[in-house]
Design goal:
CATH superfamily: TT1751-like domain
Number of helices: 10
Number of strands: 12
Order of helices and strands: HEHHHEEHEEEHHEEHEEHEEH
Structural class: alpha+beta
CATH class: Alpha Beta
Helix content: 25-40%
Shape: globular
Strand order of the largest sheet: 2-5-6-1-7
Distance between the termini: 46 Å
C-alpha cells in the first residue's frame, strides 16, 4: 500500500469513528510496599493545606466487608471523600453539576498478595464528560485545582509509578437530573429538613448506606449567594460495592466512583428543588463488568 493511500485510509477510518480518541479515565499511583501510613499522613495536614476537607472519611472498608461477608482479598481499602470548598464555591455558582463528583474519592487500596499500594482518582476529563460540563473557564479552574492535588501526591510518593486507565468514545445519558416544584414555606429550613429525612429514609429502605453528607452553605468556605440551599449525600450499596471492589477477580480500582455523590440545590428565591447525580452505567463504561451478578 503506498503512502498516500495509507494516509487516506487512516483519515477515513478516523472520520468514521473506528479510530476513537483514547482519554484518561483515572490517574493511578502505584507505590511499592505498604504505603498506608504515608497515605494517612498526607490525608491530614498536607491535603488540608491545599484547601481540601474530608467530610466523611471511611478507612478500613475492607474490614467491614470481611465482617459482613466473611472474607476479603484486600489489606487496605480506604474511601477518602474530599472536597475543596473554597475553590468549589465560585465554580458552583457557574456550574452546579460539578457537585456530582465533589466530594470525590481519593481511594487507596492494596491487594493481600501484592507488594504495592495503589492511590487513584477519576480524571478531570472523565468527570467533566460525565457531568456534561463544557464551560471552558470552569474546566480550566477545576483542572488547576486537580493538578495541585496530583502535585501533592507526586511529592509525597516520588517513586510512585504514574499511569492512567483510559476509555474511548463517550457516555450515553451519563447524568440524572430532576426538578421538583414546591410551595415555598416561610421557613425554608423546615422544607429542607423534611426533604433530607425523606431521601435518607427512602434510600435506607432500598439497602443503601448514607455514607456522607456535605452542606456547601454551612461549610464556612465563602459565599454561595446564588443558592438558598446546596448539599450533597454520599451513597453506598454494600452488597453491590463488595461484589465489585472485593473478592476474587474484583476491581477495587472502580472504587474511584464510591461513594456515589447526589447533589441537591435550591437557587436563590425560587421554589424549585434540583436533584442530580452521575448514573451507575458510567461505571461500566470506564470499568467493563462481565459478571452478570453485578
Amino acid at each position: 500500500m503506498n503512502k498516500l493511500l495509507s494516509t487516506a485510509l487512516v483519515l477515513a477510518l478516523s472520520l468514521s469513528g473506528l479510530f476513537a480518541e483514547s482519554k484518561n479515565s483515572t490517574v493511578v499511583y502505584t507505590i511499592k510496599g505498604d504505603a498506608s501510613k504515608a497515605y494517612s499522613v498526607m490525608m491530614d495536614k498536607p491535603i488540608k493545606a491545599l484547601g481540601y476537607r474530608l467530610p466523611d472519611p471511611r478507612s478500613g472498608v475492607h474490614k467491614v466487608y470481611e465482617k459482613e461477608y466473611g472474607s476479603t482479598t484486600l489489606d487496605l481499602l480506604n474511601f477518602m471523600t474530599i472536597v475543596n470548598g473554597e475553590k468549589m464555591l465560585p465554580l458552583l455558582s457557574i456550574e452546579p453539576k460539578l457537585a456530582g463528583f465533589n466530594p470525590f474519592n481519593l481511594v487507596a487500596y492494596k491487594h493481600k498478595h501484592k507488594d504495592e499500594t495503589v492511590i487513584a482518582h477519576l480524571s478531570t476529563t472523565a468527570m467533566m464528560e460525565m457531568l456534561e460540563i463544557t464551560d471552558t473557564k470552569v474546566i480550566a479552574q477545576y483542572t488547576k485545582m486537580m493538578d495541585a492535588l496530583d502535585a501533592l501526591i507526586a511529592k509525597t510518593f516520588p517513586k510512585a509509578v504514574v499511569s492512567h486507565n483510559t476509555y474511548e468514545g463517550g457516555f450515553d445519558k451519563p447524568l440524572m437530573h430532576f426538578e421538583l416544584t414546591f410551595d415555598r414555606p416561610e421557613d425554608l429550613d423546615d422544607y429542607i429538613e423534611e426533604i433530607q429525612e425523606q431521601i435518607e429514609s427512602t434510600f435506607k429502605k432500598k439497602g443503601y448506606v448514607m455514607a456522607g453528607f456535605f452542606d456547601y452553605k454551612m461549610a464556612d468556605d465563602g459565599d454561595l449567594a446564588a443558592y438558598d440551599a446546596f448539599w450533597t449525600f454520599s451513597l453506598c450499596h454494600f452488597p453491590y460495592s463488595y461484589a465489585i471492589f472485593d473478592n476474587e477477580g474484583a476491581m477495587p480500582e472502580a472504587s474511584v466512583f464510591a461513594p456515589c455523590t447526589m447533589y441537591l440545590y435550591i437557587k436563590k428565591d425560587t421554589n424549585t428543588l434540583v436533584l442530580g447525580m452521575p448514573r451507575l452505567s458510567n461505571w461500566n463504561t470506564l470499568f467493563p463488568m462481565k459478571d452478570k451478578n453485578v
